[in-house]
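To assess whether ligand presence alters the predicted conformation, the chain was also submitted together with beta-D-fructofuranose. Input:
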Amino acid sequence: MFEKYKKVLKEDYKAWYKENEDYRKKVAADPRRLSFHLMPKTGWLNDPNGLCQFHGTYHIYYQYTPFEPTGELKMWGHYTTKDFVHYKDYGPVVFPDKDFDAHGVYSGSAFIEDDTIHYFYTGNLKYFDRDDYDYINSGRGSNTITFTSKDGYDFSEKQLLMTNDDYPSDMSNHIRDPKILRHKDTYYMVLGARDKKGVGMILLYQSKDLNHWTYLNRITTPEKFGYMWECPDLFELDGQLFLICCPQGVEQKGIDYENVHQTTAMKISYDFETNEYEIKDIKLFDRGFDFYAPQTFEDEHGRRILIGWMGIPDADYTNPTVENGWQHALTIPRQLLVRDGKLIQQPIGEMKQLRSEDKAVCNFYDGQEIVLQNVVYEAIVEYNKCSSMTMTLREGITLSYKDEILTLDLGAYGAGRTTRKVHVKELSHLQIFADTSSIEIFVNHGEEVFTSRMYNLNGRVTIQGQCQGKMTVYPLKSFEIEGDDNEK
Ligand code: FRU
């Protein structure tokens, strides 16, 4: 019904929704639908957007294309929750309905000030009036746009803040994904950027009122680190400034940077008086196949919470869910903490509410094998010692540890995904969340994480090797998601 790159108004979507009950039924019937992850009701999902907590309610917006599972025209979908177990689904709520965002309501963020949610996003435009555009340095518009809300549901008019003419003249057309940081009495906006020479970086703007923005600086590594840095997130935690962003075009280095695009966390020291900075400790933020474009926010309890896209663009592996009309999901929410100067990720405490009573607890010893048949579960493995081990996470899918290397092997069940590895000096703890078609593995209380889709529904959990300890496996209950699209 929708031609590529034509505006979509809310009414258009409502009419489409009415006609597509069968499509929704087809998606809902897929056994690979996840039970404790947020997914698109139909079609495609990518980045989390506009994450915030406002008057107790968490708002989770996301890049959404309801019409087909391959992700063409992007808008923002919307979920809310108060407890990260019960959710409400509002469907798409921000549409590509203006001349300045007609080809995509791209990623953006929320910032709360004066009891108001201020949203910032990128309005994507692609020009079709000539056929010699490369869509890198010409033919593309990246508009920075804002709107506000007093409740997270009703939005003000969109307001155009910046166009490509407002970015430095040596930039390519690729500028996007605004995120706000407040430092003392000044607001800072980071934007992901690619310059004309193909160097990835972030642009830093400043403002006193969230409406008038002036260019301040660009932040990049001394040596080129990829050609484009998407979805930057600059935040302070424990007195340290961190930059999480997604560099594209970084070359593989041994077992690092094996995915087509990366998510990295950098420690950064920035002097806001002199604008001098230094980037230290660049770390690959997730070791799995499907993690990208994460976003953080500080909730009303002061927690820094992160949600990522459990997917990745341009990968050569696939998701068979496309056959059933949908693709991708968000990760479980994680709390970021600083331990020994390092940024770590832990599943938020609320996830414990999903544990069912009938847990299995078993002690394992050198050489002995424990076998359970769970499919959707959380497994906690506490090691007294471990020099080597192999776990089965699902039939034919293993996690093994040998010579200080921890390897996730999806065997024949990765739809093109093979193995991913990380160096772990000492393995002391694992916390594993297995959903119907995804796995998230937190190593040593969040020092490292593997996030991946996987495609085998035959449950099997085993542990065996030169290791001793205790394993607890909890079958997990599902999220409860209520609400039909369009109803507040
Ligand atoms: C990251 C990204 C963003 C962009 C959005 C479009 O996955 O490419 O840079 O704003 O997705 O959906």
